[in-house]
Structure formats: C-alpha cells, structure tokens
Amino acid sequence: xxxxxxxxxxxxxxxxxxxxxxxxxxxxxxxxxxxxxxxxxxxxxxxxxxxxxxxxxxxxxxxxxxxxxxxxxxxxxxxxxxxxxxxxxxxxxxxxxxxxx
Length: 101
What we know:
By secondary structure, the protein is an alpha/beta fold. Helix content is 35%, strand content 28%. A five-stranded mixed β-sheet has the order 1-3-2-4-5. β2, α2 and β3 form a beta-alpha-beta unit. The model has no long low-confidence stretch (mean pLDDT 96).
C-alpha cells in the first residue's frame, strides 16, 4: 500500500530513508493521477522492498515547489535519500519497474 508523505514526514520517510523510495506527486482533480493510483498500489504490493508513497500537491505545495513539480503525476525515485530519477506522466507497472532499475 502506498504511504502518504507530507511536509511533516517527508524528511524522515524519504530523505532519511535507507534504500529505495518511489514518490508520486499527485492531486485529486488530476485524471491521470487517479489512473496512476491503482497501478502504484499494485506495484507497491509486488515490490515490498521499495517504499512507495504519494504527495498531494494541493496539500503540500512547498514539497512540489522544492522538487520543481510542474506537471502531475510526477514520479521521483530516491535512493538512500538522494533523488536519482524523475518521470512525468502516467506509467504502467512495467514502466515503474524500468524506473527502479
């Protein structure tokens, strides 16, 4: 299950995390974001070794600004707290798997 990342827990859950963290920047009004959600949930279930979470850009605009989010959904991949990859738009499970390689 995808976690909910916020301004309050982002540092501890993502930037201080060991291992791989996939973050989906999204909003409730975004159609492609709503399509991405079940794909992300299925991906998280298939890859328990990866921490998967979401940031609502409307509720956490400072995080969206900090990472330069201009379009959603935007997927950011962190490895040991460092941003290593970014992808914009809707991605299927195989696209998400390719992103973490």
